[in-house]
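Protocol step 4 of 6: structure prediction from sequence.
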Amino acid sequence: MTPATTPRRCPCGTGLRYDECCGPRHDGSAPAATAEQLMRSRYSAFAVGDAGYLLATWHPTTRPPSVELDPAVRWTGLDVLRTAGGGLLDREGTVEFRAHWRSGGAPGGQHEISRFVRGDGAWRYLDAL
C-alpha cells in the first residue's frame, strides 16, 4: 500500500476510516442524518481544510460570505460532551463539544454548544450558544 491509499482514521474521533465516516458527507454522497453527525463532519472539514463544506452546511441566515481556514492550525481531537435533540425525527438540536488543536507548537482548544436545524431534509449549523 502506498501512503496515498493507506486508510486513515477520520478526524472526528469515531474510530472509523475517513472514507467510511465523514468523507462521504464531504463529497455529498451521504448527508448527515443527525445533528451530531453534521457537527462531527464539520470538525473534520476544519481538519482536512474543506472550507466549501463548512459554507455548504451553514444555515443561510447566519452563514458568512466566506470561511478562511488557518493552515498553521492542526486539529488534533474532538470530544463530544453532550447532545440534545438532533435525532432522526427532530427539527433542531444542540451538540456540546470540545475541539483540540495545535498551532506553532502550542496546544489550544475550543469549547462550544452548537445549534443545528433541519430543513428540507438537511441538517445545517445555525450558531453557537
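Step 5 (inspection) to follow. DSSP finds three helices and four strands in the chain.
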